[in-house]
Specification:
Elements: E1 2-7, E2 10-18, H1 24-31, E3 34-42, H2 46-52, E4 72-76, H3 80-91, E5 95-103, E6 107-109, H4 111-117, H5 135-144, H6 153-159, E7 162-166, E8 174-178, H7 182-185, H8 194-213
Helix pairs in contact: 4-5
Length: 214
């Protein structure tokens, strides 16, 4: 399997490199660590989450037009309030943001990141089977192939601010949560793109801290 490293100066560029001499399971184990990330949802789910943890939707319908992975919990370092507000439009309640500590061994890239990062003509040959597909179809391809791109979870966080966690995030991994007031809610209306994160990531990181410290 070919692994890649994203060039920090060019978020859509991947330099190919090989780790064929290192079994992937061992490679992941060597790199495992804890990360603090955030998840936004509706307060309608608050009691269940505090009791059972953050649970993937599994067989439940997705809130998104392009359905998310049913076995994943989507996490972010920048946009939890945006995702919480989106959940409120589907379920009612108030936006609630959870701060969680997760093991990187269970993290995967967000399919939206993979779709955006491979739009460059540089990848026409590598992804010739995606030629002619629209953004939704390309996103679905990467969503269904996330296992092949697991090693890019950190790039997904670095360049888009989002990733996903496979399986349940147990209650003991929830460090705290907040239901932000309207003064904070008015400050978050992002565009979830690599370009937006490049210029606005510090703003949204500061907004998260303001949200929890207010």
């Amino acid at each position: 399997m070919v692994l890649g490293q994203f060039d920090s100066a060019h978020p859509t560029k991947i330099w190919n490199c090989h780790f064929n001499s290192i079994p992937l399971q061992k490679f992941y184990k060597l790199r495992t660590m804890k990360l603090t990330l955030y998840h936004g949802t509706s307060s309608v789910h608050l009691d269940n989450i505090l009791e059972s943890g953050l649970v993937p939707r599994y067989n439940n319908d997705s809130e998104w037009e392009c359905a998310s992975r049913p076995d994943m919990i989507y996490l972010t370092s920048a946009y939890p309030l945006y995702f919480a507000e989106h959940s409120v439009t589907s379920h009612g309640g108030e936006p609630v943001v959870f701060e969680v500590e997760v093991d990187t061994l269970r993290l995967y890239p967000d399919e939206d990141f993979l779709e955006q990062a491979t739009r460059s003509e540089k990848y026409n040959d590598s992804y010739s089977h995606l030629h002619g597909l629209d953004m939704e179809a390309r996103t679905k391809y990467f969503r269904d192939s996330l296992e092949e791109y697991k090693h890019h979870y950190n790039d997904s966080l670095k360049f888009l601010g989002n990733c996903c966690h496979k399986g349940i995030i147990k209650p003991k991994r929830i460090r705290r949560y907040v239901i932000p007031d309207m003064s904070i809610r008015r400050k978050s209306d992002p565009s979830i793109t690599t370009n937006n994160f490049r210029f606005m990531s510090h703003y949204y990181a500061e907004l998260i801290q303001e949200m929890f410290n207010k």
